[in-house]
Write a structure and sequence with these properties.
- The protein is α/β, with parallel strands linked by helices.
- It is 19% helix and 30% strand.
- The strands form three sheets. It has a seven-stranded mixed β-sheet, sandwiched between helices.
- Strand 5 (74-79), helix 2 (86-98) and strand 6 form a beta-alpha-beta unit.
- It is globular and about 50 Å long.
Length: 206
């Protein structure tokens, strides 16, 4: 049957019991919708996108695999909703790195997960009613007016395009030098690998 979310997204859902052979058997609605949002953003950026792409040896399986039009570049996008240890997510990230594939982990939870400081990752939020998703944690810039790094709320489609085209990249924010201010947290938190650098904001930005 067809249904409509409060925000206006129309989708199809099973009427009654889900068939045993349904490919979404072990997947939550939230996880599937997050993957579809990423899929659409990747395609809007001009890249090919495919769901559930696995390595030939099954060492990794991407929720959404982005491939450049010439086939020379790939980037995996992982919608991570279920609990996962830092060691496990690092191990999975390393498998992509060994295969020459960039990766970005995306959490749609209200609270930023502990692993956001350990791997290339962002936290995304769905719109209240219509519109685009946004990235509200994991994208940072240096603001000269405050003399500090700060998180920048960014439309998810724009972030996906920047990441695919190499306009932003994961950087290590050393605890000794940078304190990244995050929304919704008291004081300033430190970051290690989660910060996606979008450059400088201020006099030297251009």
């Amino acid at each position: 049957m067809s249904a409509v979310l409060r925000g206006g997204t129309r989708f199809f859902a099973h009427h009654g019991k889900r068939p045993e052979d349904c490919p979404l058997e072990n997947e939550s609605f939230e996880h599937h919708m997050t993957k579809l949002v990423l899929l659409g953003a990747i395609r809007d950026a001009g890249w090919h996108a495919e769901l559930e792409v696995s390595a030939p040896d099954k060492s990794w399986r991407a929720d959404v695999m982005a491939t450049s039009t010439d086939g020379s570049r790939r980037m995996a996008w992982e919608a991570q909703l279920s609990p996962i240890t830092i060691d496990h997510i690092k191990e999975r990230t390393d498998r992509y790195t060994e295969a020459g594939i960039r990766v970005c982990w995306v959490s749609p939870h209200a609270q930023a997960p502990k692993w956001i400081d350990e791997v290339p990752a962002v936290k995304a939020i769905a719109p209240e009613a219509g519109g685009d998703w946004s990235v509200d944690d994991g994208v940072a810039a240096f603001d000269w007016s405050f003399g500090a790094w700060g998180v920048r709320v960014t439309p998810l489609p724009a972030f996906v395009r920047w990441a695919l085209d190499g306009q932003v990249k994961p950087v290590v924010s050393l605890r000794r030098y940078h304190r990244v201010k995050r929304r919704g947290r008291a004081g300033a938190g430190t970051a290690t690998r989660d910060v996606v650098d979008i450059g400088e904001v201020g006099p030297s930005a251009g």
